[in-house]
Amino acid sequence: MFSMNSWHIPDGFRFAGIHCGLRAAEPGRRDLALIVSDRPASAAAVFTQNRVAAAPVRVSRERVPRADARGIVVCSSNANACTGAQGIADARQMAALTATELGCAEEQVLVASTGVIGRMLPMQVFETGIPAAANVLSATQSSADDASQAILTTDTVKKVSSRSISIGGRTVRLLGFAKGAAMIGPNMATMLAFLMTDAAVAPNDLQSALKRGVDRSFNCISVEGHMSTNDSVFLLANGAGTPLTGEALAEFAAAVQGVCKDLAKAIAADAEGSTHLITIEVEGSRNDAEAHRIAKTVAESALVKTAFYGADPNWGRFVSAAGYAGVPFEEEQLTVWLGDIELYRNGAPMPIDLPTVSAFIKQHRDLTLRYRFTLGTGSCTFWTCDLTEEYIRLNSEYTT
Amino acid sequence: MFSMNSWHIPDGFRFAGIHCGLRAAEPGRRDLALIVSDRPASAAAVFTQNRVAAAPVRVSRERVPRADARGIVVCSSNANACTGAQGIADARQMAALTATELGCAEEQVLVASTGVIGRMLPMQVFETGIPAAANVLSATQSSADDASQAILTTDTVKKVSSRSISIGGRTVRLLGFAKGAAMIGPNMATMLAFLMTDAAVAPNDLQSALKRGVDRSFNCISVEGHMSTNDSVFLLANGAGTPLTGEALAEFAAAVQGVCKDLAKAIAADAEGSTHLITIEVEGSRNDAEAHRIAKTVAESALVKTAFYGADPNWGRFVSAAGYAGVPFEEEQLTVWLGDIELYRNGAPMPIDLPTVSAFIKQHRDLTLRYRFTLGTGSCTFWTCDLTEEYIRLNSEYTT
Predict the structure, then answer these.
(1) Are strands B277-285 and B366-373 parallel, antiparallel or unpaired?
(2) Domain B13-269 CATH (choose: 3.90.1150.200, 3.30.390.50, 1.20.1330.10, 3.60.70.12)
(3) What mean pLDDT is predicted for residues B195-210?
(4) Cβ–Cβ below 8 Å for B301 and A395
(5) Contact residues, chain A, for B344 at CB < 8 Å
(6) Angle separating helix axes B246-269 and B203-215, nearest 10 degrees
(7) A320 contacts B228? CB cut-off 8 A
(8) Cα separation of B98 and B100, whole Å?
(9) A277-396: which CATH architecture?
(10) Residue boundaries of the structural domains of chain A
(11) What's this model's pTM, rounded to 2 decimal places?
């Protein structure tokens, strides 16, 4: 996923990622991305549920789903969040400047930002920056790569996933890139993801496909459970011809979900200070919603996360975290595995050799914690990371 | 509260706190407490809501509220949690051994444990330990002090609160002590509290008073949000004569709440690795429940907690944490203060001098973060602590 040599670039898209000057202290570091569809595209998006939503979220939310989107403008290092009426005007202006370059209406351009919150955007950098980015728009992988890097903040790696699938005898390409979830000093965590495809999909179908994909991917990761003001996932589909329906649409939706999962896992794996990617699998619950609630509660337990950091197969923490998820069960209905090691069976701890299991944790960066209930057929897969001293250091450093 | 020279010991109670041998590696460290009422006492209790409840919780839960309790037996260092049917039998046996010493039925004795989970109690230590403790029972402050220390685990200080109040011309004494919330290695967090009074209160009224007291105290603290298998708060009232009713009962309930608040704050202040006690005040919400939900969400945000540790007045984190509590509001309806410093007014950040505010945080161990909404008259006061590298170190150290 990370070392892909050849990306599947959807037809009719062009990209740019440049340094426009937002990162004044880091000359040359990319801070502005453009994603452009040469023809009107169906656009779908899902946004943070936080009551405190950043200006670009408020602006973009009004513009999707739509049938004639032409592009997305993204800036990193300044989130344009909690900036009041001026922030809204600035987000609109970013889109308007982009629309001028593309020769379209400003409503056809979506906008996203990530970075420090509570500071006004220095709008003058976009007056030259957006035309400069438009000037280097290209359909090459190298340009897409530039764009995928221009959206990053404290990420240590870029997150990209792409695939070509054959739907009804026609090849469809799907490309996605994401950033997050990381935060330093006064910054906010933000998760941004952008998916592009040359499939033909009606706006409402696209919105449904994205919503389903996100529910099983980005809504199944947690670094520390703090919901950002800026989280946004966009999906543009610019295919010509008859929109997908029925089984073809379902195949497309599955591919969207696959790309979303790749990106979500990559975000959890790159979480600040983490030393383990932890997959939480819950099965046999009454329904998927209860499985999700248990998985999320376990994933957000500081005691579970520090246990992994400490290479401690602490089934007491693992079991008791499930116990306070608000889902009724009896201990006898639960069995827990770490990898293939059974820690707890039907309400009682299993005899394990602690040093051996601890060594197993130390030796594996990727670990799976599996909960099996005897209540039904619900399930959920969730990704999280361990909680380390480095996370605390990164998030408590005082920066003006 | 901590340096009280003279405790208000309720009439008719005796205490003991001894080393019975559970802490084999720490000779002399107290690990067994007895709290005894010389006459039958009304007993009330509230317990963890975790679906995975420890054996002593399961046993005590069946025995309250009741009118004829005689005592509570408490052991520390072993939580008797996740120990199956044998654990239940062992908890009953702890109570039975105590009942033999007191000459009462075993149902008249309540039981609590805290410490490592998933290990069977070495029951033989109680065969001699409980008679030995019974043998030194005393109504002195020194004995109560011994008991208050015998329940501690990783606490760095004992937590005690007591008061005498005059109700209807009669003096009533109320004494409480607590332990928690701290956990190391494979141990569980546990919050235990014991309140004793010589007021006369009917069991159901006692239960109501305790429930109300706990809702505004122990249910308003959070260290890291992981709910223990063993949390228990007990209240014994052994007064003779006509039980309190009406206004006198309300005065008594207020005193119970006061003691509960003292103990709850002491627990938050003693949280592992913490450098700040943070009071979250929410006011002007639609109702108290919504205020509690917002306060709890803020208190459990790792980003809020690390901001305090980093002396960073990060109103973006403070505001956005409130935004994902699941309570509807508009940013314009919120103003936030840190102490007397207004950080955010009606949806917009206030100009502050960051170094000055940062210095203010560094200089004060106790800080108040206040949220004022313009939605109604709901309110909540909640206590939490900051999140530090030391917390991670304490909770990730691998211990067999």
Answers:
(1) parallel
(2) 3.60.70.12
(3) 96
(4) no
(5) 82
(6) 40
(7) yes
(8) 5
(9) Roll (3.10)
(10) 13-269, 277-396
(11) 0.80
